[in-house]
Amino acid sequence: MVNPKVFRMPTVEPSLVGKAQLSDFYATQRFNRPAPRAQPLSRIVISWFFAAG
């Protein structure tokens, strides 16, 4: 069985140890926001199509 450890650099001590702490953190603090979505700042279109003329 794997015992996960999560580190927050630059500390050398783990901030979360074990599956229970990890799942509790993600259930209560990470994915509890109503709509975490990224908004695109700009769009770039690159095309290799050249019209034959």
From TrEMBL:
The answer to whether keyword Isomerase applies is: yes
Q: Which GO terms describe its molecular function?
A: isomerase activity
Sorted alphabetically, the keyword list is:
Isomerase
Q: Which domain of life is it from?
A: Bacteria
Know the name of this protein? Steroid Delta-isomerase
Name its species. Cystobacter fuscus
